[in-house]
Amino acid sequence: MAAVLNPWLALETGADPVERTGALRRAHEAFLTEGAIGTPVREVIAASWRRSARAAVEPDRVAPVELDEDDLAEHRAAHPLARVMPLFRELLGTIAEDGAHLLSVCDEHGRMLWVEGHPQVRRRAEAMNFVPGARWAEASVGTNAPGTALAVDHAVQIFAAEHYCRPVQPWTCAAAPVHDPGTRRLLGVVDITGGDHLASPHSLALVQATARAAEAHLASLAPATVAAPLLEVLGRDEALLRAGPGAPVRLGRRHSEILLLLAAHPDGLSGERLALELYGDRDISPVTLRAELSRLRSLAGPLVASRPYRLTVRVRTDHDTVADALRAGDLPTALAAYRGPLLPTSEAPGVVRLRRLLEDRLRQALLARRDPLLLDGWVRTPWGEDDLQAWEALAGALPPGARAVPTARLRALRGAYGLGPEGSGEPPGRDATYPQRSVT
């Protein structure tokens, strides 16, 4: 039997779907009872099962419905993906109407905006709340194609008993994320759901192509201006510079810091001030800084000028996207664009200051809003999972019957921080930036 060449595909060529389903069911039960994961579970599925277990997802639950008819209509009308729904229907509508598949589109939080297809198939899917307004994020309903595509920001197939929750296991689905073409912010996911026959390379390729077509269409709707270079620095130890139609340039850590600091100071910085922002009080020769800038110019071209050191064109960062959304009072957009702390392992004083300011503003807005959906999303991230104040706010925002998970987590965190059972607030001496696994 040929090996799976693409880890995002569910079945290798020649695999028996019935035999694989049985093996997966046994592996799923072994994980639920013993915590063990073995063959034939793919790594992307194993990682998703572990996330689902950490989120205390019950294996027999169905997705919660969070948006009523009025809220759903308002949210749909305002969402960027509404502009590409005609394209989704054009490319996937025939499949959705064939009596065996569903076309669905969810937002960046995993809330279903549209579910379309043959009425009989939609009625079957209603049994697991695969309906508009339901939340299909992994933290709500475990491993599933829309939720897992959001969690890993990659197109993926989920086959049969790879689904974490049993009510979803009769289905197979393929989903791909859709991004804002300018900022690369994750907007949501397009998905096709049906039977075992969807576990083929064609279904995954189809949703990937549809997502790329949607991004291209969104780009065509934007004003016809030359896009500013984009520097991605959130959740990454090494920045990505997107400065044209070619592949992005991955910068080293020091070059990432320099370009970020110059982007944050559009009027430029003197050599002395830039050295202070990079090295602090360390005694560094000016030659060292000039050498770093020379190497950066070899990567970024004429983007960097001197006397003072400055950028020759405006470079936008994903840090700017979050900061702009916060200034506009748009907390959901800010949280969706926040991919983790800014250059999390950098110790450059100027970077540390920017990192702490952004995170503090984001957390204060989140704690003040007390929106349980936004708080839940925050504490499910690597940078928010140990945030005691956020867990306290989430527990306070939920109805009494839904507080079991945050209450248990609060008890564990208070013990870890040496606080009493009724303690609150930040742990003594804790930095504002929470631990996080960097994106590579």
TrEMBL record:
Region (Disordered): 416-440
Keywords, sorted A to Z: DNA-binding
Domain of life, per lineage: Bacteria
Keyword DNA-binding: yes
Gene3D superfamilies reported in the protein's UniProt record: 3.30.450.40
Every OmpR/PhoB-type domain range: 246-311
Pfam families found in the cross-reference section: GAF
Listed name of the protein: GAF domain-containing protein
Organism, scientific name: Streptomyces macrosporus
Origin organism lineage: Bacteria, Bacillati, Actinomycetota, Actinomycetes, Kitasatosporales
